[in-house]
Each structure stands twice: as structure tokens, then as C-alpha cells.
Write the C-alpha cells for this entry.
Amino acid sequence: MNGWDWQPLLSQPLLCLLTFPLRWLPAGWVPREAIRRGMASTGEVVLLIDGTSGLENMGRQNFKDCVQIVDSYHALEHAGLVLAALIGKDHPDYKARHHRWAKRLLKDKVQALIEQTRRECASKPRAQAVEKELGYFVRNIKRMPDGTFRA
């Protein structure tokens, strides 16, 4: 399942909410539903998000002390966008580099990937497009400790 080790979670009280269709939910529904499902009995609230600012804000507003994590599926999707901007999706090394990004993301190497990519694209015509795609990682670096949560 996207590289996640779910075993530690299975031994803990677990609360799961469907959070993506926020525009269709009545105000206050998410925290009420979380309490109904037993959030008060959990030791720590972890909100798994896709990295968008809407879900980040929802987490801050509704679950003040929660830990926010960007799921690895969306991180890998954005890694592909960075590589497409950097070398092009048809480049012979695209798949191999995408695989290396996946391994490094799962080892908490987000900052190193950002720095390496910036060095590689410096003063190249694609630098602006690469920087735009890197913005996802820059904004979410604090929420991407995949290696920490897999341990």
C-alpha cells in the first residue's frame, strides 16, 4: 500500500475520516464525525492529507494538535511532475529517476531532493517550471516524514 507499514497503526485506536469532498460537507461536520467515531479516546490524531492548502487549513481549524502527513501517493505524483519539468517525461532516465525519488522520499530526504534538483536545473531554460513544481515539496516538507512514520 504505497510503501506504508500499517502494522503499528493496527495496534492503536484508529480513526478514519473521508476528508476530500469538503465543499459538500456541512460546516462542523468533520470534527463532530471525528468525535462520534471515537477521536476523544485516541492518543494522537494523525491527519493524512494530499498536500493541498485546503486540507492543511482544515487540519489546523478542526484538529488543532494533530500531526499532518502528506500521503506518499500524492508525493510521488508530484515527484513525477518535477521530473517531467526537469528532464521531460519521455527521457530515457525518467522511470529510473522517479523510482530513486520514491526511495529517497520514503527515507525523509525531501530537502536533499529539493537542493539537488535546484542545482541540476540552475541557469537552464526549464528552471522556472521546475521551481514551480518543487513548490509542492517546499510547502509540504514538514508534513513528509515518511521514513519516520514507517519506522
Notes: Confidence is low (pLDDT under 50) at residues 9-22. Residues 72-142 form one domain. The beta strands are 46-49, 67-70.
